[in-house]
Amino acid sequence: MAETIRIENATLPAEGHSVRVSANGTPVAVFLVGGTLYGLDARCTHAGGPLDRGSLAGKEVTCPLHHSVFDVSDGRVVHGPATRPVTAYRVRVEGTTLVLEHD
Ligand code: FES
Questions:
Q1: Per-residue confidence (pLDDT) for residue 103, from 0 to 100
Q2: Among 74, 92, 89, which residue's Cα sits nearest to residue 39?
Q3: Is residue 49 within 6 Å of ligand 1 at its C-beta?
Q4: Residue 61 contacts residue 31 (beta carbons within 8 Å)
Q5: How far out from the chain centre does Cα 90 lie?
Q6: Pairing relationship of beta strands 55-57 and 60-62 according to DSSP bridges
Q7: In this predicted structure, what is the pLDDT of residue 30?
Q8: Which domains, ranges and CATH numbers included, belong to the chain?
Q9: Beta-carbon neighbour count of residue 35 at 10 Å?
Q10: pLDDT tens digit at each of 103 positions of the chain
Q11: Which of 40, 41, 43, 46 to mutate to test the pocket of ligand 1 (most atoms within 8 A of CB)?
């Protein structure tokens, strides 16, 4: 079932960067790429590395621990060692509220 999380007064990332927010206790990395916001569970599915601290190249983020690469638009693994995708969130801004949704 789809879940919607609203975060009041959240700080938004600068273009090409990310911020970490808490979505009901789940850390989510929010990225801004080409003017579009994307959200991923911030915990790498390989060993929990912090994806919000990864390096971003286009829509691909590289985990800082063992360099798995994920597509920020859908959470899929571009290459391992991770084998499982991370949860992706649809992100939008309503006034001063950051809205995250995932299926
Ligand atoms: S924890 Fe991310 S690649 Fe290992």
A1: 84
A2: 89
A3: yes
A4: yes
A5: 9
A6: antiparallel
A7: 97
A8: 3-102 (2.102.10.10)
A9: 6
A10: 688 999 999 889 999 999 999 998 999 999 999 999 999 999 999 999 999 999 999 999 999 999 999 999 999 999 999 999 999 999 999 998 999 999 8
A11: 46
**Six-digit token string for 43:** 């915990």
Note the pLDDT of residue 2: 80
Q: From the CA of 82, how far away is ligand 1's center (Å)?
A: 7
From 95, 97, 101, 33, select the one nearest 70 (Cα to Cα).
33
17 is written with which tokens?
């960067």
List the structure tokens of 84. Answer: 């499982």
| DSSP track, 19-71 | EEEEETTEEEEEEEETTEEEEEESB-TTT--BGGGSEEETTEEE-TTT--EEE
Two structure tokens written together for 80: 């391992």
